[in-house]
C-alpha cells in the first residue's frame, strides 16, 4: 500500500489505564506511543488511574516475567516521545508523588486532563 | 467518512471485538468507508485460521474475512503481538521453523506503522477493548 | 474530564452504570449538559432495558456510528 503523504500529521493522545506486569497493557501503550513518534506524529502519553503505577520507580521484574518497564520508560525521549503526563489525583490516591516516579512527567489536574483530550486529534486507550 | 478500527481483545471470552464487528457493519450500512481494522495485543486472535466456533456462536475470524472480501477492508494484525500469541503467516512460520501457519487468509501481519497510517488516512479511528 | 456537549455512550458491561447508585453520576452529568446514550442490544441482553433512567437514550449500532461521526474524538473506556 502507498505511503501516507509526508506532511500529514495527526496528533494522538495514547492513554494507559493499566498497572504493569499483571497484564501487558502498559507495555503495549508505550509501544503504540513510540510507533506514532517513529512516524513523526505528535504524540502524548498519558497515564490515568492504575496506569500511573507503571511510572513507579524501583521496578525489578524477574527476567522471565517481563522486561523492565522502568527501563523502557527511560528510553521514551530517545524514541521521540517527549510529552508524558500523569493524572495527579490518581498518583495521590495511590500514595505516590513526583519523587516516586521513574521519569519526569507533567502532572495533570482535572482541567488539564480535559485540555489534553481536546488538544489531540486522536485518543487511543491501550 | 473514512473509519479505521483498533481491536485489542480476543473474540473469545470478551465482547469488545464483537462490538467492533457490529460497528463495522453499521458504518458500512450507513455508507461510510472502513479503511482498516488493526488488530493489536489479544486482538490478533481475531485473525486465526484455526478456530472452531461453537454451534450458535459467532465465528468472528470468518466474519471479519467475509466483511473484508465484500467491502475491500484492510485487515492487519500487529506482527509482534501475533508472533507472541502463535498467530503466524507462512513466512514467519518458515522463518522461525514453527511447522505450521495459523493466520487466516484475508489478514496480513504488519507493524504498528499500519495503525499510524490508518490514523493519518482516516477521519475517525475508534478503539475497542483496552 | 467529561464536559458539556460531550456524548457518553454506555456499551457492553458499561450499561450497568445505569443502575442503582451509579446512576446518580449519570443524572449529574446529564444535568451538566452531557447527552447519555446506551447501546440498546447490550441493555436488552442484560435484562436492564426496562430499568433505564429517563436521562438515557438507547441507540443501535447505527446510532453509535452517528455519534462517532458527530464527535471528532472518541475516547474508549474499557
Description:
Chain A has 126 residues and is α/β, with parallel strands linked by helices. Chain A has four helices and five strands. Chain A has a single domain, classed as DsrEFH-like (Hypothetical Protein Ychn, Chain: A, 3-Layer(aba) Sandwich), CATH 3.40.1260. In chain A, helix 3 links the parallel strand 3 and strand 4. By secondary structure, chain B is of the alpha/beta class. The model of chain B has no long low-confidence stretch (mean pLDDT 97). Chain C has one domain: DsrEFH-like (Hypothetical Protein Ychn, Chain: A, 3-Layer(aba) Sandwich). In chain C, strand 1, helix 1 and strand 2 form a beta-alpha-beta unit. The chains are: A alpha/beta (126), B alpha/beta (130), C alpha/beta (78). Chains in contact: A-B, A-C, B-C.
Strand content of chain A: 15-25%
CATH architecture of chain B: 3-Layer(aba) Sandwich
Name the chain pair with the biggest interface and residue counts per chain: A-B, 23 and 19 residues
CATH topology value of chain A:
Hypothetical Protein Ychn, Chain: A
Radius of gyration computed on alpha carbons of chain B? 14 Å
Q: How many β strands of chain A by DSSP?
A: 5
CATH class of chain A: Alpha Beta
Identify low-pLDDT runs of chain A: none
Average pLDDT score of chain A = 93
Helix percentage range of chain B? 25-40%
The percentage helix of chain A is 25-40%
Class based on secondary structure composition and strand pairing of chain A: alpha/beta
- For the largest sheet of chain A, list the strands in their spatial order: 4-3-2-1-5
Shape of chain A: globular
Calculate the terminal CA-CA distance of chain B, rounded to whole Å: 24 Å
* Broad structural category of chain B: alpha/beta
* DSSP summary, beta strand count of chain B: 5
Amino acid at each position: 500500500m502507498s505511503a501516507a503523504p509526508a506532511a500529514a500529521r495527526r496528533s494522538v493522545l495514547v492513554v494507559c489505564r493499566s498497572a504493569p506486569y499483571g497484564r501487558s497493557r502498559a507495555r503495549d501503550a508505550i509501544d503504540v506511543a513510540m510507533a506514532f513518534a517513529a512516524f513523526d506524529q505528535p504524540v502524548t502519553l498519558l497515564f490515568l488511574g492504575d496506569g500511573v503505577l507503571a511510572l513507579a520507580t524501583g521496578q525489578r521484574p524477574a527476567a522471565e516475567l517481563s522486561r523492565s518497564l522502568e527501563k523502557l520508560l527511560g528510553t521514551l525521549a530517545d524514541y521521540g516521545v517527549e510529552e508524558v503526563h500523569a493524572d495527579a489525583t490518581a498518583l495521590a490516591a495511590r500514595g505516590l508523588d513526583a519523587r516516586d516516579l521513574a521519569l519526569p512527567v507533567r502532572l495533570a489536574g482535572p482541567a488539564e486532563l480535559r485540555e489534553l483530550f481536546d488538544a489531540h486529534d486522536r485518543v487511543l486507550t491501550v | 467518512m473514512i473509519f479505521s478500527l483498533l481491536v485489542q481483545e480476543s473474540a473469545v471470552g470478551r465482547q469488545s471485538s464483537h462490538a467492533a464487528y457490529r460497528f463495522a457493519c453499521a458504518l458500512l450500512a450507513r455508507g461510510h468507508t472502513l479503511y482498516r481494522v488493526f488488530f493489536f495485543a489479544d486482538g490478533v486472535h481475531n485473525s486465526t485460521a484455526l478456530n472452531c466456533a461453537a454451534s450458535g456462536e459467532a465465528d468472528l475470524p470468518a466474519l471479519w474475512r467475509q466483511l473484508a472480501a465484500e467491502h475491500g477492508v484492510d485487515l492487519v494484525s500487529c506482527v509482534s503481538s501475533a508472533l507472541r500469541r502463535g498467530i503466524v503467516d507462512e513466512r514467519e512460520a518458515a522463518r522461525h521453523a514453527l511447522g505450521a501457519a495459523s493466520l487466516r487468509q484475508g489478514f496480513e501481519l504488519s507493524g504498528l506503522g499500519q495503525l499510524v497510517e490508518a490514523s493519518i488516512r482516516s477521519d475517525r479511528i475508534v478503539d475497542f477493548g483496552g | 474530564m467529561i464536559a458539556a456537549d460531550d456524548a457518553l455512550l454506555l456499551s457492553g458491561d458499561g450499561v450497568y452504570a445505569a443502575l442503582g447508585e451509579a446512576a446518580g453520576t449519570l443524572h449529574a452529568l446529564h444535568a451538566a449538559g452531557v447527552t447519555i446514550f446506551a447501546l440498546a442490544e447490550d441493555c436488552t441482553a442484560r435484562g436492564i432495558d426496562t430499568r433505564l433512567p429517563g436521562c438515557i437514550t438507547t441507540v443501535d449500532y447505527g446510532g453509535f456510528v452517528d455519534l462517532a461521526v458527530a464527535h471528532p474524538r472518541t475516547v474508549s473506556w474499557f
